[in-house]
Amino acid sequence: MTEPASAETASVRNPSARLIDGKAFAANLTQTIAQEVRAFHDRHQVTPGLAVVLVGNDPASEVYVRNKALQTHRAGMRSFMHMLPETTSQAELLALIGRLNHDPEIHGILVQLPLPAGLDPVAITNAIHPDKDVDGLGEVNAGRLALGQPGIVPCTPLGCLMLLKSELGGLRGLHAVIIGASNLVGRPMARLLLAEGCTVTVAHIDTRDTAALARQGDILVVATGCHGLVRGDWIKPGAAVIDVGITRISLPNGKTRLVGDVAFDEAVTRAGRITPVPGGVGPMTIACLLNNTLAAARRIVGGAA
Ligand code: NAD
């Protein structure tokens, strides 16, 4: 009698995972947000405004904040850029945040991280009014998420969750393994997936045998900054793999390329679904920032769309 095909055999017969197109999902989401921004303006005569603060001249951060400003305009919102010199003091930055907190034209405030040495990112993040903390990184919003209360959710894990729900539908009962435990991605991701009814395992730099844990994940979210960390045989056949990592590597021809934390060519033969890098999680992060800014404007202005 022939043995029934195991999931592993099936995955080998069908070696190519479905690509999760974060770019297309984010473009649709941004279009929907733009329509809602117009409706919000018609109703309240208010245009949602996002202030982005960049201290210093880190080239990667400059690209990120310019891209955020461009997308904010595309969604029909107002963008207020504050480019401050490297020499900005903590008191000067806190004073700016204080003014933005009270500015009625501003509904969302984002301070681009990392900050130059000498500035305390925890104090700066916590100085943003919780209603305008569209990155969701302050202690009030982080605490609300930890307690399962409504609040502003960090953009990257929110984008990952949207992709997973659109791909898999309900997540209840699935085992989600998250590699990476940062406040920016891993921890809020764990809380979101727990709230969806997943069983959640979080691995980090001190975890013993991360590969063995990863192999148990129906969902595998990877956010470590170690490019190519997750090999093909770390992946449970058929799993949904979300690669948050972004690292720019140099190629022998002198050019550079963005890569993720997952060895994509190997993973694609085992996973059921996988996000590419670039074009997966990255575009969702900005779309979710716009989503959070519109939601903040709705709450601040006091009501419906
Ligand atoms: P971080 O450095 O703050 O945290 C990394 C986490 O990974 C830590 O918890 C650490 O313990 C864990 N880790 C590191 N090496 C590990 C290993 N070998 N095995 C297991 N765990 C390990 O990083 P972060 O801010 O969370 O960012 C992680 C990655 O995600 C980076 O590449 C970053 O650029 C990327 N990122 C992308 C987006 C996006 O929009 N796509 C947004 C945020 C971060």
Automatic annotation (TrEMBL):
Residues where NADP(+) binds: 180-182, 205, 246
Gene3D superfamilies from the UniProt entry: Leucine Dehydrogenase, chain A, domain 1 (3.40.50.10860), NAD(P)-binding Rossmann-like Domain (3.40.50.720)
Pfam families assigned: THF_DHG_CYH, THF_DHG_CYH_C
GO molecular function terms attached to this record: methenyltetrahydrofolate cyclohydrolase activity; methylenetetrahydrofolate dehydrogenase (NADP+) activity
GO CC annotations on file: cytosol
UniProt cross-references to InterPro entries, sorted A to Z: Aminoacid_DH-like_N_sf, NAD(P)-bd_dom_sf, THF_DH/CycHdrlase, THF_DH/CycHdrlase_cat_dom, THF_DH/CycHdrlase_CS, THF_DH/CycHdrlase_NAD-bd_dom
Catalytic activity: (6R)-5,10-methylene-5,6,7,8-tetrahydrofolate + NADP(+) = (6R)-5,10-methenyltetrahydrofolate + NADPH; (6R)-5,10-methenyltetrahydrofolate + H2O = (6R)-10-formyltetrahydrofolate + H(+)
Protein name: Bifunctional protein FolD
